[in-house]
Amino acid sequence: MKTLSMTAASATLMALGTGVTPAEAVTVFTDRTAWEETVSGITTETFSTPQSSSHSLLLESGIQVTGVSSVWSSGQFYTSTPSRSESVEFEFPSQILGFGADFSSTTSNGGLTVSGLFDEIPGIDTVVFSEYLQGQGTGFLGIVADTAFNSLSFAMQSPPLAVSAANEAFQIDNFSFASNLAESDTVSSPESPTDSENNRGEPMPPLTDTRSESVPEPTSVLGLLMMAVLGTTSLRKRQTR
Q: Which value, to the nearest 10 degrees, does the dihedral of the CA atoms of residues 160, 35, 17, 101 take?
């Protein structure tokens, strides 16, 4: 299992206030707008239709939730990780490249993690909520993975935040997932040397006109020859006088 933690790069980004943290196999977002600008083909589950508590729920967006007893009402999804050996599984209807949601109370007891196969390197990648969300762990958290995946696993942090913690109850709202990365509005072309410099930083040679001189038309050539003959004849007449 690979745990994704904050690095020196993340500290730089936090200083910039972007809410984006590169973390090995995935990029972790704490700002929904930034996450939405990075992906496309977004589907959002708002939990608008209440359902009874069950160990297996099919959400309106097509996500299958299994594991511990879960329920949603009043527009939020409520669940918990009852022990360190159990988890809540989210299976998506198709391959996705990212997800994001508004979370509540993810670090109020044992602490929450989310895991998945987020890159091509064998092994599970794990994002620890307490490393990105402050206080009780309430706020937006999203990821964009290096490769497509189709499931997530929510489980309690190990070791837990509280020594005596037995579970971590948490809530989810506006659960979004995206099938593609956002396309750039403009496609940049390879830069050409500018300001009289080539790609080695040396001065560019002065531009020269490589166009060949125009060749007179055949009629023009004939006219020039006639003029030359007339000029020669006239010169001879003047000399013989």
A: -40
Both tokens of 47, joined, read 């939990």
Cα 29 to Cα 17, 107, 128: the distances in Å are 11, 17, 13
User: How distant, in Å, are the alpha carbons of 27, 234, 237 from that of 241?
Assistant: 101, 11, 6
**Each residue's pLDDT tens digit, 14-70:** 333 456 665 457 899 999 999 999 999 999 998 887 777 778 888 889 999 888 666
Residue the block writes with tokens 């002065």: 206
How far, CA to CA in Å, does 217 sit from each of 114, 167, 213? 80, 94, 13
Kindly tell me the sign of the dihedral angle through the C-alpha atoms of 201, 206, 207, 208.
negative
Please report, in angstroms and rounded to a whole number, the separation of the first and last CA atoms in the chain.
Answer: 114
Cα 140 from Cα 163, distance rounded (Å): 26
3-state secondary structure of 161: coil
Burial class (CB in 10 A: 0-12, 13-18, 19+), 237: exposed
Cα separation, 156 vs 130, whole angstroms: 11
Task: Tell me if the bond preceding 159 is cis, omega within 30° of 0.
Answer: yes
Return the residue matching tokens 């109370």: 105
Beta bridge partner(s), residue 173: 102
pLDDT of 135-184, one tens digit each? 999 999 999 999 999 999 999 998 999 888 888 888 899 999 999 999 85
Two tokens at 192? 């050409």
Distance CA 89, CA 229 (A): 101
Instruction: Note the pTM of the prediction, 2 decimals.
Output: 0.67
